[in-house]
Write a structure and sequence with these properties.
heterodimer, A: 261 residues, alpha+beta, Alpha-Beta Plaits, 4-stranded mixed sheet, two-stranded antiparallel sheet, B: 406 residues, Formate dehydrogenase/DMSO reductase fold, 5 strands
Chain lengths: 261, 406
């Protein structure tokens, strides 16, 4: 074998040791072939909103899921995100807007001084320092390591203190009996609920339903991704363009940011 | 001072049984209301996703705040060593426990899942002031029970002062905790203020004493025992100080808010054009619950007892109005997500919330009052809470007339 390599490689190089060189070369190739798919997968996982975490692996704080909403591309008359959320999570109104749950809603804004009008979707802002989690007596309101704020429906006692504490009015109390629930979005009469960021979809490497709907049929105003990954599209966009958090004065550091507000 | 003799009331009159029956009916109607609310969900109440705390919370907070205040009479006797208050201490402790239990029953039965009370007892988030309050409330019941026992067991009387001091400090912390439930709500403009804690303490002094005066008089008149005007006028003048303290802290609360331009909206709502809430504030809290009682207790009158009874009643009515304005009025004013912008949405953003109390809510709240009443009624029937006489001569060391021996 060494003769064959010798005949095809630089035979006249001084100090040349054919057997050692071929060994190192073979090892490098083998290592490359072994590691490359992992590196590529890792790279994909870091740049794609679809996390490569498997369901049996623990959620870590390496990831911080967030959303960037370009208000300039959000049409006042469009509520595709709202209907997609309702469909995905099995939210059905009873025709009673005061007590029906709303996980995401459209807010129309008008600057009272300039007359400028805009529209935007508002939902749980998945704060880094969520007041709802602070005030919850049982710990039913909690923040997942990857930044998603959720309610554990098994230990929520329905005291509604989180609803008093949320600055975004993002939470709803289930005021009446429910039917035909979605198995991936369990709800319960007498407990509090809010946007889950479609955690079941994120765990299945998909985007939240509202983001998908906005991109498919809406204005493409919503971008979802990992704020901790400097290479993700959302990180690059928030680095390049000015964006803002609603009620930034409260220091909650929401995971949802708005552009052109 | 004469040795004070305490005894149970007979509790076998028609009046006693009628009162007990009425209180039981109200208690049962509260349980029925709670069952109705849990069965159909809170959709049958006036509460909604904008007004998340309603009339049950007004009753519960009023009762819990009053509970800690009711204990003050005992504290003044044992901790601050005023002899005239000493005979009043036992009823003060009983009333404190009764009012707290009544308030807690309302609070628990209004939960979305009251069946999960055990969950709240097993899962704690120690960053939550609700969690602190669970410990403060349960601890208060224990501390006051021990305090009562030390007062009632003569051999242990010398420990009563220490227990009284612990109970007094505990009650101050407890009311601070209750006020801070609102004070810590940074996002809501009507709350979000450290003054909520001292304001609630002053409210507790005032409401608790007003209830104490009425219960004391009712118990003595109902059981044909003598009660002199020395006690009543002294309690009445003390009530005046507490009422003035509430008015003072309320003025500071609103003046501070008025100074900040960002709070002009919510202040305008409460003080000027909030409809029912503005009326409840000025007519209910300030006039009926504040200025008129002050005038009644401090103005010389032909019938001081009647004035004190009227003042106490008005303080309770004004107190309810105040708690209603704080709890419901504070939520009615919309959250301000986008300062300087006009907002509208399908979820009532930017709109004043609407709320009207429903029958089940009122039933549940009144049930809490009834439970407190039942505890006091049977407490004084079964144990020696009340001195046999509170006649002037029996309690006032400077009174010259010989006391009647009971």
């Amino acid at each position: 074998m060494s003769r064959k390599i010798k005949s095809t490689s630089a035979p006249d190089t001084p100090g040349y040791n054919p057997s050692r060189r071929s060994f190192l070369g073979a090892m490098a190739t083998a290592a490359g072939v072994t590691l490359a798919p992992g590196v590529i997968l890792y790279a994909i996982s870091k740049s794609s909103p679809a996390n490569a975490r498997t369901l049996d692996a623990a959620v870590t704080s390496d990831v911080r899921w967030g959303m960037l909403i370009d208000v300039g591309r959000c049409d006042s008359g469009c509520d595709d995100c709202v209907s997609a959320c309702a469909k995905e999570n099995g939210l059905r109104g009873h025709g009673r807007p005061e007590t029906d749950a709303q996980w995401i809603r459209k807010i129309d804004l008008k600057n009272s001084q300039t007359g400028n009008s805009t529209s935007l979707p508002m939902m749980c802002q998945h704060c880094e320092n969520p007041p709802c989690v602070d005030v919850c007596p049982t710990g039913a309101s909690f923040k997942r390591a990857d930044g998603i704020v959720l309610v554990d429906k098994h230990i929520c006692i329905g005291c509604r203190y989180c609803m008093m504490a949320c600055p975004y009015k993002a939470r709803s109390f289930v005021h009446e009996a429910l039917e035909d629930q979605k198995s991936h979005a369990p709800r319960g009469k007498g407990t509090v609920e809010s946007c889950t960021l479609c955690v079941h979809r994120i765990d299945a490497n998909q985007q939240p339903a509202c983001v998908e709907a906005c991109s498919d049929t809406g204005g493409g105003a919503m971008l979802f991704g990992d704020l901790n990954d400097p290479d993700s599209e959302i990180s690059q966009r928030v680095a390049k363009y000015a964006s803002q958090q609603v009620r930034a004065d409260l220091g909650l550091n929401p995971g949802v940011r708005y552009r052109n507000l | 001072m004469k040795r004070i003799i305490y005894s149970e009331i007979k509790g076998n009159s028609n009046q006693f049984y009628s009162l007990a029956a009425i209180l039981i009916v109200f208690t049962l109607s509260a349980l029925g209301s709670a069952f109705y609310m849990e069965h159909y969900g809170h959709v049958v109440t006036g509460m909604n996703n904008q007004i998340v705390w309603g009339t049950p919370h007004v009753f519960a907070i009023f009762l819990i705040v009053a509970a800690s205040g009711a204990l003050n009479v005992a504290s003044i006797g044992t901790v601050f060593g005023k002899p005239i208050y000493k005979p009043l201490g036992r009823l003060s402790g009983l009333l404190a426990i009764a009012l707290l239990l009544g308030g807690l029953v309302v609070l628990v039965l209004d939960l979305g899942r009251p069946d999960r009370l055990i969950v709240a007892m097993l899962n704690y988030n120690f960053k939550s002031i609700f969690t602190w309050n669970i410990f403060l409330y349960i601890g208060f019941l224990g501390v006051v029970a021990v305090y009562l026992w030390l007062q009632m067991e003569r051999r242990m009387n010398h420990f009563a002062k220490t227990a009284g001091l612990v109970a007094f400090i505990w009650r101050l912390v407890l009311t601070t905790g209750t006020g801070s439930i609102f004070g810590f709500l940074v996002a809501r403009e009507a709350y979000d203020s450290a003054i909520m804690a001292p304001l609630f303490i002053a409210m507790s002094f005032s409401f608790g004493l007003a209830i104490y005066i009425l219960v004391l008089l009712a118990a003595y008149r109902g059981s044909d025992r003598e009660i002199g005007d020395v006690v009543i006028s002294k309690l009445g003048r003390l009530l005046g100080i507490f009422v003035a303290a509430v008015l003072f802290l309320t003025a500071v609360q609103h003046l501070t808010n008025l100074y900040a331009a960002e709070h002009a909206g919510v202040e305008r709502f409460i003080l000027l054009d909030g409809g029912i809430y503005t009326m409840l504030f000025w007519a209910g809290q300030v006039l009926v619950g504040g200025l008129i009682p002050l005038m009644l207790v401090y103005r010389p009158a032909a019938s001081p007892n009647r004035n004190v009874i009227l003042a106490s009643t008005l303080v309770i009515i004004g107190g309810f109005a105040q708690v209603y304005v704080i709890v419901i009025g504070g939520q009615t004013y919309p959250l301000n997500l986008f300062p300087g912008m006009e907002v509208s949405s399908s979820f009532a953003d930017g709109a004043f919330a609407t709320y009207s109390p429903s029958l089940p809510e009122i039933g549940l709240g009144l049930g809490g009052v009834a439970i407190a009443g039942l505890i006091v009624l049977f407490g004084i029937k079964l144990l020696r809470f009340l001195p046999t006489s509170l006649a002037n001569a029996a309690i006032d060391p400077h009174h010259t007339v010989t006391a009647k021996t009971p």
